[in-house]
Inverse folding.
């Protein structure tokens, strides 16, 4: 699979991540914290821009200091925010307190009255999809209306403009009214998409049976998707295409934290596909990017640049699957 270019429109949230400092500190014992851009869609946008692509975000942020922090961070990384709208009232930006530690890792996510769920049809209809080469979204946008209906409308408009749809399942149970609603909505979204990326638990969840996740990924490709990446943690990934499966391993790393791997994987994958790499090499680039990010503090600031990623790939042999 190839993408026509590296201009991406991304539907999803931007927020603030707060890390106890120094690395290894437990949240309840911290006296200093480090703040950076958060939110899976914003992080994917940063990953893309650091690898030479362009990314514009479509979302809402709160009209307060935290929302303005997110906007300033988007500017810092060069992620376009012409389609990011500030909303007032009681809406609040997503906020995550995330530890830079593996053992007994704690992440506390605040999503009460989330501002990004205020995204409307008008927000996605204001986008000129002809200016982009692909649309990316993460599953969180579908967890509540009006964001859910707006995201599906964005899908329709992007497809009409000839854009491939790229979907990171990104299942967060705390955002959803019920597991059944989530499974139904994700299956509907997945059926519209050209590329679906998720882990074994997420595909299993979509299938309604955790033992049938791989079957679900295969079904999505059989029904028209061009690519499904079924990630299995330390066991690597199985990438399903209409031409057959590609099995890859993971790169060894001294992980500092478990978070950020999915966002960095997506950024590396789509940058590879946009750069003309084979599917296998694009998946390996995503895996390398993930290995680098989990070994660094933060998510957005940890995303590798093109020279850093190329150096990593040169120094590490392609891993075998387990």
């Amino acid at each position: 699979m190839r993408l026509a270019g590296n201009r991406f429109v991304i539907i999803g949230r931007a927020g603030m991540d707060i890390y106890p400092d120094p690395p290894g500190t437990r949240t309840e014992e911290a006296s200093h914290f480090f703040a950076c851009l958060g939110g899976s869609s914003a992080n994917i946008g940063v990953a893309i821009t650091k690898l030479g692509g362009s990314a514009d975000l479509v979302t809402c942020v709160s009209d307060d200091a935290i929302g303005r922090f997110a906007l300033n961070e988007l500017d810092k990384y060069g992620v376009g925010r012409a389609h990011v709208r500030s909303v007032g009232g009681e809406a609040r930006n997503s906020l995550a307190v995330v530890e830079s530690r593996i053992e007994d890792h704690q992440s506390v996510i605040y999503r009460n009255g989330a501002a990004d769920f205020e995204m409307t049809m008008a927000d996605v209809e204001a986008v000129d999809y002809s200016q982009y080469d692909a649309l990316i979204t993460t599953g969180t946008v579908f967890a509540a209306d009006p964001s859910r209906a707006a995201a599906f409308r964005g899908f329709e408009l992007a497809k009409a403009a000839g854009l491939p749809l790229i979907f990171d399942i990104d299942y967060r149970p705390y955002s959803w009214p019920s597991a059944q609603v989530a499974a139904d909505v994700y299956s509907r979204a997945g059926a519209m998409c050209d590329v679906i990326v998720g882990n074994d638990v997420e595909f299993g969840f979509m299938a309604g049976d955790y033992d049938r996740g791989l079957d679900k990924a295969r079904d999505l490709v059989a029904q028209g998707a061009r690519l499904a990446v079924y990630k299995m943690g330390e066991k690597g990934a199985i990438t399903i295409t209409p031409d057959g499966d590609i099995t890859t391993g993971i790169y060894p790393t001294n992980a500092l934290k478990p978070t950020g791997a999915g966002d960095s994987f997506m950024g590396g994958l789509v940058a590879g596909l946009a750069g003309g790499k084979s599917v296998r090499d694009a998946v390996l680039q995503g895996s390398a990017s993930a290995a680098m990010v989990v070994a660094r503090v933060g998510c957005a600031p940890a995303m590798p640049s093109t020279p850093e990623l190329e150096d990593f790939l040169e120094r590490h042999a392609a891993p075998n699957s387990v």
